[in-house]
Amino acid sequence: MTVTVRALRTEDRADIEAFARVRRIALPFLLSTPEAIAYDVANFHPDAHYQALVAEEDGEVIGTAQTAVVHDSAEPGQGYVNVYVHPERTRRGAGALLVRTAERHLAAVGATRSFAWVLDAPDNRAFAERRGYRSSRNAHFLRLDLANGKLPPLQDPPPGVEIRPASDFAADPRPLFDLDAEASSDEPSDVDYEFTDYESWLRETWQHPLFSPELTSVALVDGRPVAFSAARTDGATRYGTVMTGTARDFRGLGLAKLAKNDSLHRARAAGYAEALTGNDAGNDPMIAINKWFGYEICATEVRYVRELA
Prior knowledge:
This protein has helices spanning 13-26, 34-43, 94-108, 122-130, 174-184, 198-206, 255-269, 284-293; strands at residues 3-7, 51-57, 60-69, 78-85, 113-119, 134-145, 161-165, 217-221, 224-233, 238-246, 274-280, 296-307. By secondary structure, it is an alpha+beta fold. The model has no long low-confidence stretch (mean pLDDT 94).
């Protein structure tokens, strides 16, 4: 039986659904829907040279890859490839072929370095290391049972602070972009980003089909957004916090925790049963906040990097 790799057929609903299904089985800790995958392919910045790939065996999609250039990095040549193979279809060459195809694509568009997230399991790490990748940082996936767990009670914000949903900024979300850009620039990362493109942020964050402005909570001081907890959902039972942050001048006041607690309560009231999030393993303050909410680590990924010839 022969394994082949090709580009995702974005006009083929069944192909997109197969891609989403493999991603969900291989990596159940991230939200992934066919609508989100189709939107990503259509709306990535052209300079990212984004490509979605599938590995196929006898007509069955058994593996996926997403690869792109980090176009908004101050350092040129940074790329990434994230490969996920159906856990019951490993050791057939799909992963290796996906990696080789993605690396050729990156090299062809000028990338000189490839980053990859790899689940922290012996076989997965050995797979990356055999291909010349070296380990870098770790990150955790965390899960909270919203349906049956006990959330901390909602607290009244301190004087001068109010908590509002991001949907209140629908007419002009620019203040939320400014806050997101400031908070994200201090996130632990192997790659430095220049978070300055408002139009790209609108397409890739604000207008993304998974993003929920109704469940994203924002803390304001004197009318200025200073902390937030950004939410995505699958539209069914799963809710994810994709970024929680605070403007530099307002850190240490517990405002991000207030915003996240408000968002979690909104999500549970809306009927979501499972809350997911992720943390860099070195981000101790955010890990402590998530444990306070009752999140538990359910998996760990390792960041790997390889210089491309």
